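Homework help thread (please don't just give me the answer)

Our assignment gives two proteins as sequence + structure token strings and asks us to describe the second one. The first is just a warm-up. Here they are:
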Amino acid sequence: MSSSESVGENYDAIASEYADNLFNELEAKPLDRHLLNRFAEEVRGRGSVADIGCGPGQVARYLSDQGVRIIGIDLSEEMVRVATRLNPKIEFRADNMLSLDLADESFAGIVAFYSIIHLEPADISAAFREFRRLLSNDGVLFIAFHIGDHVHHVDEMWGKPVSLDFHFLRPADVSRALKATGFRVTEETEREPYEGAEHPSRRCYLFARPMGEK
């Protein structure tokens, strides 16, 4: 079984629990809402936007409520079913961010909240190359991830057995990978965790834009 298949199957197993516990998480995260509002201001009315690694669709729903035309994409087919049930007005589809079945320059924006954290380091650049292929030349990429240089393994989530590796990443490394795949980072924000609302780790948010033509 490939790493992607394993991740997808693990999230298939906990899709309902994930939604029950995290669908309303943005209510307790004011900086996340602020940055998503800024992203929405940039992409609203400019075309379709992809939420890659969308989970149950909480970010897609938030952006849709801000007037963004969005599609949610997730590796887990069960997560896509849950997201569709919770957000019937938004389109969701199952696909692999390393090789998406979509045309070049399909999107004016891509948001990827904690969706690169299950990738092996060698695959992060492959994901960024795919993001670059999908973005218009004047598009905007907005990503979020845990800050660190270690792997956090979990065997249980919400009472269900899983086997998932969460890769904590150094912002400088992510910025270098973005630059190597045709992006320039335009903004970087870090914050401490919101106590009681999430895993106790520092968070990084990066806005990036394509560097000229492909």
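The one we have to describe:
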Amino acid sequence: MHAHTLLVIDDEPQIRRAVKSALESTAHRIVEAATGRDGLNLAASWRPDLVVLDLGLPDMDGLAVCRELRSWGHMPVVVLSARHSDEEKVALLDAGADDYVTKPFSLREFAARVRAQLRRALQADATLVTADDLTIDLAARRVTRAEQPIRLTPIEFNILRALVVQADRTLTHRQLFDAVWGQAFGNAQQYLRVHITNLRRKIERDPSRPRLIVTEPGVGYRFELPR
């Protein structure tokens, strides 16, 4: 098992204790910081496998911390916040956060989401992804179920690829739109809705209850690897 080092940046001691308790079986080492600047310094020295980041820090905004982390680091960033607005979630995800958990939160769900991000980071270089009996060969641009080919349009495959290479991470409508269509103008949400619907019809066992391509209302979509 990989010896994970996690960094928790939060100014509330009780939250840091709760996070440590939830993640002690996941991490080899958990490093703590109570301010954004201390967190950035610890991140630079420890090079953690994942960062848990609160937004309401006393010295600097969590969004600025996320942007600075992402300017040089590739570790997953899981945001903890009492703020619930979709606009804020989109801003954090666009700034490079990998997941967004609102307070109060379930410790079991939080730990599961952290494990999902760690798993995604380890699998980031994989070109062959399996989910139930679905196989996605990114290099060959081929999708099969039980060895039977599933025919996707180029756009559908590009959307699927963008989601799969960052599985378990929510991508905003704009992030997906830019990944597939480049910097073209248009309504990202409207463009994606039609293609996501068609893609679900082809790869989901029950398109009306999707388990692989999950909607984050008002934010975007994510590809969930089976636990």
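TA reply:
I won't write it for you, but here's a hint about the kind of observation we're looking for: Residues 34 and 49 are 19 Å apart (CA to CA).
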